[in-house]
Amino acid sequence: MSIAQIVESVVDGPLPLRVEAYDGSGVGPAEAARRLTVATPRGLSYLATAPGDLGLARAYVSGDLRVEGVHPGDPYDLLADLSGVRFRRPGREQVLELSRMLGVRGLTPPPPPPQESLPRWRRLAEGLRHNQTRDAEAIHHHYDVSNRFYEMVLGPSMTYTCACYPAADATLEEAQENKYRLVFDKLGLRPGDRLLDIGCGWGGMVRHAARRGVSVLGVTLSREQALWAQKAIAEEGLADLAEVRHSDYRAVTESGFDAVSSIGLTEHIGVRNYPAYFGFIRDRLRTGGLLLNHCITRPHNRRTETGAFIDRYVFPDGELTGSGRIITEVQDAGLEVFHEENLREHYALTLAGWCRNLVEHWDECVEEVGEGTARVWGLYMAGSRLGFERNEIQLHHVLAAKTGADGLSGLPLRPWWST
């Protein structure tokens, strides 16, 4: 039995792409726009010993699974093809044939590519999930790749969160600027106000608000982000209004802020830590102060860990839940929710823009971080785009206030910002 015959025996229905293997066999339409080649026995071992997205990722990132018909910086069409494939559980005959092909050594999982993090159970050695040490390591794994790499992929805004497109044909930069404008306006910020930006990244929101006369403190667990942001603040002459600290948000002791923005941090803190997280924010706000929480969510309200590929290669320890759970936790912390909205489709457009940048700068990105890491990013961003388009993941804004004891918020009766 050939490798192609084994593939054909476990696929339920026709293949939308061509699959070939190092033994010379092939299955699927010869004229297909996209072609997958299992190029080595190690690639087959990756696929056999870790069925699903983890095995595919290992083989692809290592170069043992080769692809024709898509650019590695944007394998969106390939992933769309694969998402329609349905697999059957392999029978005894297929398992025995694989065992014969690979031998005992081949049925032992090969060492994963160097870009892979330890599995969750192995990371327990670093301490309980979401303690400050382990959170710092998780952030370092993802965000301290290379500032130059991020400049090429994210573009001039250096903004690694969902943009807000004023129109479908807007540029990525226009949409990111519009996102910061929207957050600023929702928070009702004015010159002289004080803003705390938790998980500030490279300081995009910090600088946006400081340019408009707001005093801003941003915190990030990524040293590389903090250094980049501090340099950008100095170059723009904003040091009298803007500060970015390399720090865990839990180390912030200042309070009395007029507003808190949390843009893309909630995904990292763990659902069980929401009460402490939103309680911390409540305690940092003055009475009447506002919170804008921007985070990736599920279309349901169950707590879910990210899949194996995302957890091992992208966001170690990441957890998601639905907007309803987030709103409940915000309310239980004593904050009053005034507005929420779903920007899911905007994130699909944002990811498409990042993939275009990666394709455009592919050779430079590979030179900067290596081909394996660049492949991880293309795979992750294209797969995430597909997830947002298909409503498997969402992005919600939740706006809340620290209402006074008298129940008065002091806010306008209707939304005061333009969409």
Automatic annotation (TrEMBL):
CDD domains: AdoMet_MTases
Pfam family, one: CMAS
UniProt keyword terms in alphabetical order: Lipid metabolism, Methyltransferase, S-adenosyl-L-methionine, Transferase
The keyword Ubl conjugation appears for this protein: no
Gene Ontology molecular-function annotations: methyltransferase activity
Family: Belongs to the CFA/CMAS family.
Name the UniProt record assigns to this protein: Class I SAM-dependent methyltransferase
Lineage: Bacteria, Bacillati, Actinomycetota, Actinomycetes, Micrococcales
